[in-house]
Design a protein that fits this description.
Order of helices and strands: EHEHEHHHEHHEE
Distance between the termini: 21 Å
Shape: globular
Oligomer: single chain
Amino acid sequence: MQETVVDLIRHGEPAGGRMIRGNGCDHPLSTTGWAQMRPAVAPAAEGKAPWQQIVTSPMRRCHAFAVELAGHLGLPLAVEPQLREIGMGAWEGRRPTEVAVAEPDAFHAFRSDPVAHRPPGGEQLADFRRRIARAYERQLAHWPGHRLLIVCHAGVTRAVLGHVLGAEDAAWYRMAIDYAGVSRVRHGVFGAAVEYVNARKARG
């Protein structure tokens, strides 16, 4: 069995700075966001490309960078619609400080137990996990023995890592994933192994 290696990179800072963004808030990368992304892949992308396939969320904060990188490296690019971020319902596009003041009880409940207390109209974590797991397994089936780069979101990265580790939703949702943070999963004869999480740069 050939190993399949998957690097997941979170998008950089979007335009507008810090706010609650899910799949209903499609902002492009800011200038800072672009400056975060390019150095994160530069060491691995020097010379021969370390990946054979790039896969991206359709959302602009991921897709635009993936298009640029695929063009630069001469790699095929696939858009996976199901890798969009988790839906955050009525809180989409709002500042966390604003929500904390306007809806203190709901915000406190969400921060204390994000599994049981989702934002109003937000996607349930179990539904999100299943959506991401299906999309991720589909990529593994499409590209066996390949090295993949998936350009995605903090929530998507957490859900993938939770899926391969068999972790409960409450556990993986607590992981901090930085802008342009890189995580790696290696799939071999003995199953999946998470090699690192939230690295500042992709490794060749």
